[in-house]
């Protein structure tokens, strides 16, 4: 995947989260992959776990969680 593709997918995620839309399909898969990579880097697992659970069920993220994404 090129850096251009990655930036585009990140843009899709940001736009959908700001519009309170749930992530679906490949966009959701990409978001979960990004979070998974950050989990292995020792970042705040509780926050990331909460974000993963909300994304999987289509719940809205709070402002801080959205900013973290």
Mean pLDDT: 89
Q: Look at the helices and sheets and give the structural class.
A: mainly alpha
Q: Classify the helix fraction into a percent range.
A: over 70%
User: Cα-atom Rg, whole angstroms?
Assistant: 11 Å
In DSSP terms (H or I, runs of 4 or more residues), the helix count works out at 4
What overall geometry do the principal axes of the alpha carbons give? globular
Content of β-strand = under 5%
Largest sheet features? none
Order of helices and strands: HHHH
Q: Which regions are unreliable across 5 or more consecutive residues at pLDDT < 50?
A: none
The tally of structural domains comes to 1
Gap between N and C termini, in Å? 20 Å
- The counted number of beta strands is 0
Describe this structure in words.
By secondary structure, the chain is an all-alpha fold. The chain has one domain (3-68). The protein contains four helices and no strands. Helix 1 packs across helix 2 and helix 2 runs antiparallel to helix 3 (45-57). The chain is globular and about 30 Å long. The two termini are 20 Å apart. The model has no long low-confidence stretch (mean pLDDT 89).
């Amino acid at each position: 995947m090129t850096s251009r593709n990655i930036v585009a997918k990140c843009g899709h995620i940001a736009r959908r989260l700001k519009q309170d839309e749930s992530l679906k399909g490949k966009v959701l898969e990409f978001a979960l992959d990004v979070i998974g990579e950050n989990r292995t880097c020792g970042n705040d697992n509780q926050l990331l776990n909460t974000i993963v659970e909300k994304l999987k069920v289509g719940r809205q993220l709070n402002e801080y969680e959205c900013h973290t994404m």
